[in-house]
Amino acid sequence: MKAIPTTYNGVRFRSRLEAKWAAFFDLAGWRWEYEPLDLDGYVPDFILQMRRPILVEVKPFMWDFVNEDEQNLIGHARVKIDLSGWDGEAWIVGATTTKRGDADWLCGQYREDGAWGNAGLYACGECGHKTPFHHDMSWRCRQCGADDHASHRIQNWDVTADLRAAANAVQWRAA
């Protein structure tokens, strides 16, 4: 798949998919920096400025149709992040999100405390902010720190609608 350089909000992105995620981060109310630093052999696509910075890598995979090539793409990204020297949380996002199980939105892979697992998105009932989380480790809000998912997790965020709106914000338009 050939990347299409795209400008969004005054920033020139290497791909439309990266621009789509920048627009999504804006809709979620998250401060982001694009290609903000050089790590050991690696430049992350984004850093989200939350309670603690979160590294974000964007890859072109579809959650509902992950094939062997896409699994390799995800695995390669995980290794690259693990070897980069980044010791904080990291998130690998793809082209889509999907709904599974008890309505958790799966949206890639998340690394917390060195362990990778499925990533989810939710709105925190404590602070009201939208936040990513590690499905198998911590449902802690990355904005306020609340960590009891049973009482803080609320289902009022239409992630698919926001992802569609982000795609519309960066789509190609004839001049």
How would you explain this protein's 3D organization?
This protein is α+β, with helices and mostly antiparallel strands and 175 residues long. It has one domain (8-170). It has helices at 16-28, 68-83, 149-152, 159-170; strands at 6-8, 11-13, 31-34, 46-49, 54-58, 89-93, 98-100, 104-112, 115-124, 130-134, 153-154. The two termini are 25 Å apart. The relative contact order is 0.15.
Order of helices and strands: EEHEEEHEEEEEHEH
Work out the helicity level.
25-40%
**Arithmetic mean of pLDDT:** 85
For the largest beta-sheet, the strand count, sense and barrel status come to: 9 strands, mixed
Provide the number of structural domains.
Answer: 1
* General shape: globular
- Measured between the Cα atoms of the first and last residue, the distance is 25 Å
Low-confidence stretches: none
Number of distinct helices: 4
What share of the residues does DSSP label as strand, in percent?
25-35%
Q: What would you call the structural class?
A: alpha+beta
Radius of gyration: 15 Å
How many extended strands? 11
Per-chain topology:
Blueprint: E1 6-8, E2 11-13, H1 16-28, E3 31-34, E4 46-49, E5 54-58, H2 68-83, E6 89-93, E7 98-100, E8 104-112, E9 115-124, E10 130-134, H3 149-152, E11 153-154, H4 159-170
Parallel strand pairs: 5-6
Antiparallel strand pairs: 1-2, 3-4, 4-5, 6-8, 7-8, 8-9, 9-10, 9-11
Helix pairs in contact: 1-4
